[in-house]
Structure formats: C-alpha cells, structure tokens
Amino acid sequence: MGRMDGKVALITGAARGQGRAHAVRLAQEGADIIAVDSCAQLPSVPYPLATKDDLDETARLVESVGRRVVTAVADVRDPSALREAIDDGVARLGRLDSVIANAGIVTFALGHDMSDELWQDMIDVNLTGVFHTCRAGVPHLMAAGGGSIVLTSSMMGLKAGKNVAHYAASKHGVMGYMKGLARDLAPHKIRVNCVNPGSVGSPMLLNQYVYDSFCPDVSDPGPSDLGEVLGPWQELDIPWVEPEDVTAAVLFLCSDEARYITGIALPVDGGTMLQ
Amino acid sequence: MSRFTGKVALITGAARGQGRSHAVRLAAEGADIIAVDHCQDLGSVPYPLASTADLDETARLVRETGRRVVASVADVRDFAQLSAAVDAGVTELGRLDIVVANAGIFSVGDAVSLSEEAWDDMIDINLTGVWKTAKAAIPHLRTTGDGGSIINIGSTASSRPYVGLPHYVAAKHGVIGLTKALAKELAPEMIRVNAVLPTNVDTDMIQNEATYKLFLPDLEAPTRDDFALPARDLQEMPRSWIEVGDVSAAVLFLASSESRYITGAALPVDLGALLK
Questions:
Q1: Choosing among A148, A256, A262, which should be mutated to test the B contact, i.e. which has the most B CBs within 10 A?
Q2: Which residue from A minimizes the CA distance to B276?
Q3: What is the pTM of this model?
Q4: Distance CA A1, CA B20 (A)
Q5: pLDDT tens-digit profile of A129-186?
Q6: Distance (Å, rounded) from C-alpha A200 to C-alpha A215?
C-alpha cells in the first residue's frame, strides 16, 4: 500500500536533482507522474542545466518502479507551453492530485550590481514560473475535488545571504504567493505549502560554478571544499541535505497524513534557521 | 510499515487524547512506549483531567499492538517524580529514542481576572513541564547514542495570540523558544528537536463548557454544536477542528528518519489558522 496510490503528481524541474527524487519516490508510493523540464540552457546561468537525456532518465526510473509517466519539455516561463504540457499529461493520466513546483535556478551577484538579465531570469523562473505552474494546475485539482500543492521555496525564503538578493527575493516571493494561494484555495480543499530546503546536494549545488563562487581561495575546488564552507551553515553535523530528504517532506505534505496542513513553511535545512 | 522497530518512545500526557494517539500510533509502527500522565484533576483547570483508568487503557491499547509499555503516574511539574518514571521506563525497555512532550492543560481568563494559581499552573505544566521532560530524557538519548528526536507540542498559540488566554499564549510561545534553544544545544549530537503546532483538536481539552463559554459568552448552556461555528472561523479550511490522528501523523514524521535533517522547526497542523 503506497501513500500516493491512485494519484497523479505534476513535477516541474523533474529532469534531475530534487525534481527527479520527488518523481521517483512518489512513483514508488503509487503515483503516476507528469514530469516537466525546460531541458535548455539559460545564458545567465553559468552551470549546466538539465538535458533531455536527464528527463528521459527520470522517466525510465519512474517506469522502472511500475508507474506511468508523461514527460514534456516545457519552460515554466512560457505559460502556454506549460499549460499545454500539463493539460496533455492530465488527459493521458486521467486526473491531477498534486502539483510540485520545483523548477528553479541559482546565480550569484551583488544585490546592487547585477544585470537586468540575471535579475529577470531569476524572478521569471523561480517566482513567476511557480505562478504559471499553479495557474495551469489548479483547474485540474479542482476537477479532482481537491489536492495538494507544494512549492519549493528555500531557507532563502525565510532569511537572506550575501550575493543572493535576487534569489532571496524570488524565494521570499514564493512564500508570499504560497500564503495567498493557500487562503484562496482552502475552501476548495486544495492545500498549499512550501518546503524550505537548506543547501541540497543536487546538480544546482554540486557544480564548478558553485565551487568557484564559494571557495575563491582554493585552486580547483571540489565538493569536499564546498562542504567545508557550507557545513557550518547547519547546526547538524552535515555538509548539506540530500534531495531525498526534501522528497520525504514533499511526500508528507502531499499525502493524506497532512490532510489538514495548509499555508505552512517546512524547513529541511539541518537547523540552518537556528543560526 | 514499521518506521520505529527497535525504538523506544516517551510520551507525557499519554493517558488520553493526543498523547494516547501518539502512543498507539508509535507502537503500531514498532516502538515500545514509556507512558506518563499525572492522572489527577487540578483546581485551576475547569474540566476533568485524565484518570489512572485512562492511562491503563492507553497501556492496554499499546499492548494490543504487540509492543511493550511502561506506564507511570508522574507530574511533569515534579522533576524527581518525572525522572524516576523515565528512568524506570528506560531500565525496563533498554533505551530511549523519541520524546513527545505532550502533557498540557487549558484554562481561560483575561490578564486581570486570571488567578495567580491559574497562571502558575499553566506555565509550570505547559512550559516548564516541557523543559523538565527534556531534562529527564536527554541523558538517556545520549546514552542510546543513536541521535534521537524530541517533539514538543506547541499550538497555533505558539505563533499568534488569542484573547482570553494570556497564560496559554505565553506558555506556548515559550515552547517555541525552548524548542529552538534545545535544537541548537543538541544538534552536535544529532539529537533533533522540533515542535508541532496544532489548532483545535477534538479532545476533552477543548470540548468542555469552559471553552464553549469563552467563545460563546452570551449563551446560557453552549454545546459542542454551538462551538463548532466560532471554532470553524479560526481556520481557513472549512472545518472546526482536527482529529488526534492528524497531530500523530506530524509527530511520527518528525520522530522518523524521514526527517533526519529537520531540526528547530515548528510544524503547524492547523487547517490554515496561522494564515489569518
């Protein structure tokens, strides 16, 4: 017996990292999956974004646990392409119960000295992309008679760090949107919550751009150098959390175990918020 | 599903209500249980508190799942009594992994009319009792050496005020501060400390005449059905209260390894009450 038996879940940014972990675990718990990813590089993002091969691998992993999957290459910045992908997925899988708005990017720059492009891509993907995802998904949740929406915010949706003012603005924005949407949808039995991960050991973090940004004094820095910098951010003795830890929180919020939980921020951060 | 096979959980206020639900659910997923309750009425509390018969029933329900239970009558205000009960449970069951500081009372009164006794009892049980529970349990979590998870039961009143409950609001806000401080103190040992913040839960603690009168002062003899209307207005989702099992689901998530890197968090189970 799975905690998501008979359900269909939409996941954006599903090609790899946290999105892939959510897709595979929800499938293991019985859900069919609509997996969306842009699978394209953004000029303002200096680390490699996911590819179509990554998305195909997510699909293979979902199918390997015996569930159905519909994949779509769609950019959360493009509302019509996104709506088409979601409508098509729901038409093929029959319903929609959970929306997991996970697609996101990170870049680093001073808040008073960044290009229009860097700012705009961040807001467009991390905040407006969440709005596009929910706007296209909610009619299907209403048709199913209720559902659960989980937005991936961040510890940077609750506080801020240096060189991430645009990222913090986008993730704080997600928190505000979550609270407003939760109030709008409570009468419709649709719950809306955020997970707020700390540093997560996914390709968004484990790449040369992040190593170089956080370890400027190390020549040819790697994951262990990054771990030494990021470890002290947590109160628990860990360098970062794993995608699967965020997935466990997402699954809890999507499941009936959280049937009366709405409007909350659930940190998965090793105690970062205690600092 | 057995998320807690081989684990031992301590639960205060275990005789009935939320505490009983946590005990039975944890046992159903494999944990042995140390169940503690005061089992006595209090002068400042305007509804009957749990009895030893209630605590016996919790113990019976735990045994019915096939797990072991050590049930003790102890007051969370009395550290010597409480620590003796915890020590006895750990001696018999061999270890301690999970602590649910659940014991709590409810009474009503504005800041001026509230008696000193009602204030003191509230702070002593709902706040200091949580600290004493941690103080009694932490040495055993350390000895077990397998991390551990402490879950303190706060309330939506941990994050926002309500009129007519200054002592309850103060105590439950205090629980959040204590939770964060304990989380920071114990993180190096991988012992996690989190809080659950329920809204109205359908138990004897709120289903009583004193609570009904707080919300419906103009009614001669308000009933559960009368209370359902103002109770519903406290939340965004169209329900008056949640069930004990909804709080247990959150407690079990925080007690399990699924939340292995979550510490210092406050998890509302509140039908969206804190959005208001």
A1: A262
A2: A183
A3: 0.96
A4: 25
A5: 999 999 999 999 999 999 999 999 999 999 999 999 999 999 999 999 999 999 999 9
A6: 17
